[in-house]
Amino acid sequence: MNRLTVSPSPHVHSGDSVKKNMYGVIIALVPALAASLYYFGLGAAIVTITAVVSCVFFEWAIQKYLLKNDSTIMDGSAALTGLLLAFNMPSNLPIWIIIIGSLVAIGIGKMSFGGLGNNPFNPALVGRVFLLISFPVQMTLWPKPIVSQAHYLDAETGATPLSVMKEGLANGETVSTMMSKIPSYTELFFGNSGGSAGEIAAAALLIGLIFMLIRKIITWHIPVAIIGSIAVFTGILHLVNPEVYAGPLFHLLTGGVMLGAIFMATDYVSSPMANKGMIIYGIGIGVITVVIRVFGAYPEGVSFAILIMNGFVPLIDKYVKPKRFGEVVKTAKA
Amino acid sequence: MNVVLITIISLGVLGSLAAIILYFVAQKFKVFEDPRIDQVEEVLPAANCGGCGYPGCRAFAEAMVKSDDISDLNCPVGGADTMSAAAAILGKEVAAADPMVAVVRCNGTCENRPRITEYDGATSCTIATSLYGGDTGCSNGCLGLGECVDACAFNAMYMDEETGLPVIIEDNCVSCGACVDACPKNIIELRKKGPKSRRIFVSCVNTDKGAAAKKACSVACIACKKCQKICPFDAITVENNLAYIDYNKCKLCRKCVAECPTNAIHMINFPPPKPKVEKPVAESAE
Amino acid sequence: MLKTFSLGGVHPAENKFSAGQKIEVLPVPEQVSVPIAQHIGAPSEPVVAKGDEVKVGQLIAKSTGFVSANIHSPVSGKVFKIDDIIDASGYKRKAIIIKTEGDEWDESIDRSEDLITEVTASPEEIIKKVGEAGIVGLGGATFPAHVKLSVPPGKTCEVLILNGVECEPYLTADHQLMMEKGDEIMVGTQILMKALKVEKAIIGIENNKPDAIKHMSELAGKYPGITIQPLKVQYPQGGEKQLIDACIGRQIPSGKLPIEVGAVVQNVGTTLAVYEAVQKNKPLFERVVTVTGKSVSKPSNFLARVGTPLNQLIDAAGGLPEDTGKVIGGGPMMGKALSSTEVPITKGSSGILIMPDEMAKRGKTEACIRCSKCVSVCPMGLSPYLLMTVSDKAIWDRAEEEKIMDCIECGSCSFTCPANRPLLDYIRLGKGKVGQIMRSRTK
């Protein structure tokens, strides 16, 4: 007979694992990846492959030569960071910039804090924002969808709906005239517009959300809080003056709202633990996003909003506790 | 020019005013602190290990200054030198405390004490202890999960991979007692370091009856009382199926070491065995 | 929507292999070892000495306080010795070892199968009887039953809740009891209701036992005041606090007892023991034990005497499988892994679960990825990830602030953690320390 194993209870496990969750998110990103390959073709493929490979490589290299601990590249978290980073970049970005972005994302965004589980900020967004500030020109040249399918660096570029709107309003145009210059809502929903490689197709991203909710990888709180607060906030502004402020649907379907709300803000490590905290965090992201988009200098603000709220997570976790058993219901009759 | 002058003057006046207010406030709310506390703290080792029983060296210094009789107080890290230096500052008497060292009283190596179950929980001796007696037949012995090593702040312990037992690096041990508190099985004891670091102790804490103890571990104390009978100094007591050597009474004669049938009594730092010559009195005179 | 408790919970694979297996009476063992500490509270004091002749049901160790319990001889024969043996706690503790001779029962015990429905005893007599019979919570917690029945002055009990949930995977002892001893349980319920002076009793049964729900509902028609409450399958529904929440929607405040919300909970097995004690004068010395596991050739429910060594039950269930890696006393979520198969079963042994080697080991512990799954499954609304960290770092005041003492040790957090972190191991450690600190403060 074998020697008996003695361990504290529980003696069974759900079978869930870090790997399953990470690969689950990657699977949830497949529809969005398909959409980006369809609209941006060659460029999207090069950007995605470069980002994923370089993120995994940097994680491996840093763990092997600097931290000298066990490699965690197989858990899928580095590949996921690479994929999300690629989705946040235009599809005509030169390879060397992507590699720098990956190094910042993994090296500074993740490994400098001690690796998976310890990073206060979403690593992919750290990489993305670093690139946006360092290479503002390259990071805001957006290839046109479909026509640039067979192109990479030489893709024909145009503006995103958000920058079209922002510029137009700055020049004194009204929302209704600008709306005619951007793709229709249906086109925006299916992703036929300019933008980062993975953020354009709201439909594909929503399929990913449904998959993750069914597999219980994430809960509804963060995406719903972000989308809801953006809808409410922009809706109020739109009602106040529809010619100066674009409507909620425009804000939800353009830019990185869907990608951010579903995949970036829900990053386990950099989001709050309690459900109530998640909702506060989501509302914070929604409000900051709208403030940056409507009143700020940048046409887009999802990345900044998420990073800012990432910074508040320790505070939220400290003060927002889960609902405790026996705390609220007090129906005892003496 | 005028602007510069006005600025300088007004700022200067403001500064002086603030300085005067601060001075009076500082005088009014001055907290008197015995300057000797600082002096005593100066001679303490600043290890802040808590080995003296006070939270940090400053608290210990305060205690030394405040109490009239400091014979109960001892800084194990600094030892006699530090204590006499501190006592000199205060003009108080200090009893010379013998230097102590931590001793692991278990020799249940993988060879001596076969494993009969496998522990598969969090790497923590306390957690394993709350679960069961341990992965061997001995429910008193070392679990080998290294909580003592984690507790040691002086790099004086390590786990021997081969035996699965902690080892004390005597030169580094300051006898702060952190490992003693950390061990949930009370295996580690602070014992007198002894002349030339020589000491004799029972390396076992098993309280089972002889046969059960022997079955669990080949080097267990079986409470046969042979050591107790042979000891010329009444230093050995057998209680609860376990022999214990009082280090204050032991004269290091080594008779018990030879007598122990299970080699549970260990001697440390004695010269390699010479042909049998036993001079207990000469040993203790050193 | 079926009722269940309001916060958290998990649904482990049920694996009720022994469901539907008739309760088999295990032959009386040749020798029994009866530990004197097999309940919560003070260990009992032996009242027999080596060489004494004892009969089945004779008192062999008496309770040593209010929270303590009498122990009766499970066999007839001679006291062989009183010695330290390794029991389910994993430590050597005192036990009374009796060599069996024949099977002679104490004359006062009514051994007939007849159902006695008429309850003649007064509430005080019932509580006294339950205390004398050494009845403890048979769900596994082993809390002395008479203590729960003694409602403290100033409080009133409004409802009796019976636990027929059996939320632990694998175990089927209570399920089978309800199927075979339904009537006795109903009378037992009437007795408990009388003792507590309540008009209402609810028997909570999880929906994975439709036959038991049907059977008990049919019986309940014959007895006034008893209703059957089917519940959604959700672990840890059998926890006292969770069961009250599920059945009557009241939550016990932190650090309080069920009586605070006017409820008393008893297990169905305990209720049967109460019936036997009050109506048949039979003290608690045998119980139903499930022996089960993936590789066990004959998963069964046995009626076994307290003190029977585990391996006798395992042999009766087809022997210890070749690939055994772990033997657990109780269910897989809260049961205790045993270091030997020679330990005796006690009043609290609801099952013996034999795990094959490949299921015995835990997965590799990885870094916390803050997925918050432990928070969402915690039935007490705690933050297990945080409690583990503060316990590991010995920050006891913070642990107390975060209500570590509310933890019911159900193991949902460790069960769920994708990084295989030993959350409950550390929380238990922290609970122990914080409990110590709190007790020393009140002194």
Automatic annotation (TrEMBL), chain A:
Is-annotated flag, keyword DNA-binding? no
Give the enzyme's main class according to its UniProt record, as a single word.
Answer: translocase
Q: Name one GO biological process term.
A: electron transport chain
Write out the GO cellular component annotations.
Answer: plasma membrane
Task: Give UniProt keywords alphabetically.
Answer: Cell membrane, Electron transport, Flavoprotein, FMN, Membrane, Phosphoprotein, Translocase, Transmembrane, Transmembrane helix, Transport
FMN phosphoryl threonine, modified sites: 160
Which cofactors?
A: FMN
Q: Major place of localization?
A: membrane
What membrane topology term does the record carry?
A: Multi-pass membrane protein
Q: Does the keyword Electron transport apply?
A: yes
List residues traversing the bilayer: 21-38, 44-61, 95-113, 125-142, 188-213, 220-240, 246-266, 278-296
- Please report which protein family the annotation says this sequence is part of: Belongs to the NqrB/RnfD family.
Function summary: Part of a membrane-bound complex that couples electron transfer with translocation of ions across the membrane.
Q: What name does this protein carry?
A: Ion-translocating oxidoreductase complex subunit D
State the gene name recorded for this protein: rnfD
TrEMBL record, chain B:
Q: Does the keyword section mention Iron-sulfur? A: yes
Where are the membrane-spanning stretches?
6-26
The taxonomy runs: Bacteria, Pseudomonadati, Bacteroidota, Bacteroidia, Marinilabiliales
> What does the record give as EC number?
7.-.-.-
- Keywords linked to the UniProt accession: 4Fe-4S, Cell membrane, Electron transport, Iron, Iron-sulfur, Membrane, Metal-binding, Repeat, Translocase, Transmembrane, Transmembrane helix, Transport
Query: Quick one: which residues bind [4Fe-4S] cluster 2?
Result: 138, 142, 148, 183
Give the region (Hydrophobic) as residue ranges.
Answer: 1-26
**Which positions bind [4Fe-4S] cluster 3?**
152, 173, 176, 179
Mind telling me what this protein is named? Ion-translocating oxidoreductase complex subunit B
Q: State the species of origin.
A: Carboxylicivirga sediminis
> Where is the secretion signal located?
none
In this chain the 4Fe-4S ferredoxin-type domain maps to: 142-162, 164-193, 210-240, 241-270
What job does the chain carry out?
Part of a membrane-bound complex that couples electron transfer with translocation of ions across the membrane.
Q: What class of enzyme is it?
A: translocase
Show where the 4Fe-4S domain sits: 32-92
**Any note on cofactor binding?**
Binds 3 [4Fe-4S] clusters.
MF terms in GO: 4 iron, 4 sulfur cluster binding; electron transfer activity; metal ion binding
GO cellular component annotations of the record: plasma membrane
UniProtKB/TrEMBL annotation, chain C:
Q: Name one GO cellular component term.
A: plasma membrane
Q: What class of enzyme is it?
A: translocase
Gene that encodes the chain:
rsxC
Q: Which InterPro entries match?
A: 4Fe4S_Fe-S-bd (IPR017896), 4Fe4S_Fe_S_CS (IPR017900), Ion_transpt_RnfC/RsxC (IPR010208), Nuo51_FMN-bd (IPR011538), Nuo51_FMN-bd_sf (IPR037225), RnfC_N (IPR026902), Soluble_ligand-bd (IPR019554)
**Entry binding sites for [4Fe-4S] cluster 1:** 368, 371, 374, 417
Q: Which PROSITE patterns match?
A: 4FE4S_FER_1, 4FE4S_FER_2
From the broadest rank down, the organism's phylogenetic lineage runs: Bacteria, Pseudomonadati, Bacteroidota, Bacteroidia, Marinilabiliales
User: What is the protein name for this chain?
Assistant: Ion-translocating oxidoreductase complex subunit C
Its cofactor is:
[4Fe-4S] cluster
Question: Which residues are noted in the entry as [4Fe-4S] cluster 2-binding?
Answer: 378, 407, 410, 413
